[in-house]
Amino acid sequence: MTTTADAPAVDTAVDTAPAPSATRPSAPAPPRQDPSSGTGSGTPWLLALLVLVTGMFMSVLDVSIVNVAIPAMQKDFGVTTDDIQWVSTAYSLALGVIVPVSAWLGERLGLGRAYVFSLVGFGLGSALCGLAWDINSMIAFRILQAIPGGIIPVVALSMVYQIVPRERIGAAMGLYGLGIVFAPAVGPTLGGYLVEYVDWRLIFFINVPIGIVGAIAAVVWLPMGKGVRGKRFDVLGFLTIAVGLFSLLLALSEGQSWGWTSYPVLILLTVGLLSLALFVVIELEVDQPLLDVRVFSYWAFTNSLLLIAVLSVGLFGVLFFIPLFLQQSQGLGAFDTGLLLLPQAVVMGILMPVAGRLYDKIGPRWPAVIGLTILALGTWMLRDLSIDTSWSELRWILVFRAVGMGLAMMPIMTGGISAVPPDRVSGASAFNNVTQRTTSAMGLAALTALLSSAQAQEGSDTGAAMHMSAHTPMLQQYMSYSQVEAHAFVTAIDDIMMVTAVLTALGVLLAFRLRSGPAPNPSSGPAVME
Hints:
Layout: H1 45-77, H2 81-84, H3 86-109, H4 111-130, H5 135-163, H6 169-197, H7 202-205, H8 207-221, H9 235-258, H10 263-285, H11 299-329, H12 334-362, H13 365-381, H14 391-417, H15 425-465, H16 474-511
Helix pairs in contact: 1-5, 1-6, 1-8, 3-4, 3-5, 3-9, 3-15, 4-5, 4-8, 5-15, 6-12, 6-14, 9-10, 9-15, 11-14, 11-15, 11-16, 12-14, 13-14, 13-16, 15-16
């Protein structure tokens, strides 16, 4: 299937991507940049890339670092567990609304300007969160923080493809991926230290100087091209995808507490799916869609989104449940838990640039196949966790998994985005970020439901097998009950790891469908689905 509609070019002062396929109408070629600089303004592309990595790292780090501070916030604000969870839930819901419109904002303002405004806005929102005086103000400020926080990843990814020469895109994405993978892994360590030894409010205040310095660096070293003024805002498309993603994320976030078969959850799921279906219909009919769904006609891009979903579930699922296991079953503090997880973050940080260089030389298929295979094997090794599992053994298993994640993530993402025409990269990066956000939330919700179900079943089976009379001392009954609960929890964690391992192994089959070999000649254009 080929398409004929082209969106207006964005910030065309820089463009090193291949021209559209011969089946598409030709357009005047934008001026080519000097390969030695990459940005078209005399700035080396590596320096400009580091500015983008800084913003990306800050926005992704915030998600994992805030989770560590939730118990401390709850104590300070004096609220229930259900109330404090809205600090994270509100942020996720706001992201679901703002990410789809980020591509349009990038085109309207210009990518460079949108990036600067979002960095400043994120720093301001973070400062307000640090000043929050109660739970309601914190939730409101988290929503304000999420608006620029959702724009940063979409705009940054689009700019990577604008400033980096196409033949170096793999190496560039390897560095860019540090923000996506390294930040969630290092977040528990930094957050745990700040919460235990300083003040939880500092996890927000540290974003302020980073945002200011990042914005100044962006003005100096990033291209500040003008945006496209002629493109109208697709109101119907925005409303349908915003309602769809909001409904699905809310249902998945609250399904555990409301009940997965309750009327509110079922209604939200139905509204969400119908809204997304209507969004697709609208985007295929309007002249200037909010997001061009025709990018899914490029199989390499669609396949990459499926694999990103698998990786997101594996990454965020393990990053959520392993700290839970260490703190609830083995009594580790937040900071010590973060230290145990830190080596895997270091390994991923080292391997991401290596994987990027491999992509440039051999393409995405074999790094993805090998990486996903290692990731599946490492996750399978976690199925035997017990209360007595040594920290050294767990650390080495996590490091082994990190090798697979570091090899697979960036080649998969780079291969997908590189398959679409340059004028559609902004829309593709928006879909990429929507996929990461929603699948990590969906996967975490599904795994949490599995954890609760398996834990309840195991506790019931183990409890029924125990025989205690009315004359059994209360202390003995309590100790026996605690042992049953601990055993049921660890067994449920093992079940989750098995499910995640199987899902990752299925991803290996999709990885074999990725392109093998260096990127095709720019004159050939990207391949589309027939």
